Structure formats: C-alpha cells, structure tokens
Amino acid sequence: MPDMKVNLAGMTMKNPIVVASGTFGFGREYNEFFDLGELGGICAKGLTLLPREGNPAPRIAETPMGILNSVGLQNPGVDAFIKEELPFLRQFDTKVIANISGNTPEEYGIMCDKLAAAGVDMIEVNISCPNVKAGGLAYGTRPDLAAEVTAMARKHAGSVPVMVKLSPNVTDITEIAKAVESAGADAVSLINTIRGMRIDVNTRRPVLKMNTGGMSGPAVLPVAVRMVWEVANAVKIPVLGMGGVAKGEDAAQLMLAGATAVAVGTSLFADPYAAIKVRDELAAIADRQGLASVRELTGGVKPW
Ligand SMILES: Cc1cc2nc3c(=O)[nH]c(=O)nc-3n(C[C@H](O)[C@H](O)[C@H](O)COP(=O)(O)O)c2cc1C
User: Fold this and answer.
1) 137-178, pLDDT tens digit by residue?
2) What is the CATH number of domain 6-56+71-197+215-297?
3) How do the domains of the chain map onto residue ranges?
4) I want to staple 179 with a disulfide (CB 3.0 to 4.6 A). Which of 86, 143, 213, 255 is the partner?
5) Is the pTM of this model over 0.70?
C-alpha cells in the first residue's frame, strides 16, 4: 500500500482526507458510525466569538447533484467549543482544525488567541462571511481586507498554523490567494460554497428564507478543480482542496491539480462513511498507479 501520510503547513496527517467545516458538526454524531481517528483531520463547525442562532428556516435545499444552504454559522461560540467540544475531539488520533469567522479583524485575533492557547492543531480562517467595517462586503472578495484579517490571525495564532479559506465568489481567486500568502498565511483552503438561488415556481418564493444560499456537493467539483489548479500555480503555500468530493477519483483530481490534502463535505450528508471511502479509494488509485506515496499525486497534472 502507498504511504498515505501528508504534511500540510507543518501539520502531519496520517492520510490526506479531512472533513469540511460545517458538514461534520463537532464529530459527535459521526463517531457513532466510525472511529474519528481514521480521518487525517477534522475541520470543526465554523465558530464565532459569541454564540449564533444562524439564519431562519428553510435554510437547506437540494439542487441537481448538490445542495444550497444558508445555515448562517449557527454555533455555540468559541469558548463553548474550547470547553465542551475540543476535549471530546482530542480523544481521537486525528488533527483538529478550528474554523473561525469574525465581524472585525479584532474578533479574528481574539479567537486565535483563545484557540492557540487551547491547543488546536490548525486554525482555518473563514473569510467568506459578511463583515461590518467594509459595509457588508465579504472579506474574501477584497485582497486588502483578506490580507488584513490574515495578518491579524497570524499575529495571534502563535505557533499554530493559519490556513485561510477562500471564497469562489470572485473574479480572480489567485489575487486573494496571493494577498493572504503575502500577509503570512501558512496554507489556503478552497473552495467555500458558490452563491446560488432556487425558486419554487408554484409559490413563486425563493426556496430559502434568505433568498440565496451557498451551493456545494458533486455539481461544484469542476469549479473546485479549476480554482485549486489556478491557486496552486499562483502561490507557494500548500492547498487544502475541497468542493464536491464524493469519490477517491475526485480527491485524486484535486491533488493532481495541486492540493496537498482534500476535504469531504456535503457527500457526508448522503453517506456518513463518504470520507473513509474516499480515503480507501484514493489509496487504491495510488496503489494501481504504482506510487510509493500519495504525495506524488500533488501537482501531478500534465500540461497539454
Ligand atoms: C451546511 C453547510 C455548512 C457549512 N458551514 C461552513 C462553515 O461554518 N465554515 C466554513 O468555512 N465553511 C462551511 N461550509 C463550506 C464547506 O466547508 C465546503 O467548503 C463546501 O461545502 C464545499 O465542499 P463540499 O462540496 O464537499 O461540501 C459549509 C457547507 C455546508 C454544506
């Protein structure tokens, strides 16, 4: 069998498969299906400084080969995570990645202070959420603001690696990637959800209460592969690829495009074992191709 170990910005994982933030809660439900120590890592549900109720329902709807969600960062807050959830996750032989969203750069800094002191393995900085200072624009769509948040997180994260999660809802994702790299990001993860909308023709109302939502699932895989490829060619820091991964072959595509590791998200809703299956299928592909290590896939796409 090929060596499945990978190193993501100094964090060594037993295999390249992690679960995507917001699709795995804090792992308690999935722990009833399999040992969480089977995973390379767990990106925990997105945290904010204070607890949040999230958006009103309906906030999840199906689309062809995907879903639209407008959950809106429902979470118990960073302090409750550190007190209640982190000790649970720490029981397992897997890496714990905390995912954070703030209203201001200062809030990102405070959360990084707390999480670094609590001893998470990595902090994933979600810059795809609305903010106050920039008048409702998302940090992830402006290079200057993305850099400001990254610098703040980096300053407060101590020795914990900082991975910045990029939004696909931009004209040129490489501009944001380069901006966060220059500001000190240790890694980038992509893609977050793609903004979309569905309308009920009979009621004539949007199916989501918030009108629009973020699209994810197998339908977005080609967008993710394209963006990972663009970003991996634009920056030197490692990439965690995600978006629509349901099979080992999907994970292999993201790695060939340049990802060091891969997250499985929406597929978990249809099959709680999806991440384990992706890991095993990825190992089988590497084995069939005669690779000594799965790492040989990263960036291995051949130019025409
Ligand atoms: C219900 C739901 C909640 C999510 N919550 C978060 C979140 O809190 N923070 C975050 O960075 N991404 C969040 N995401 C985005 C996923 O982590 C992932 O980037 C995206 O869904 C693409 O991967 P997938 O197609 O495998 O799901 C969420 C996605 C879904 C479907």
Assistant:
1) 578 999 999 999 999 999 999 999 999 999 999 999 999 999
2) 3.20.20.70
3) 6-56+71-197+215-297
4) 143
5) yes
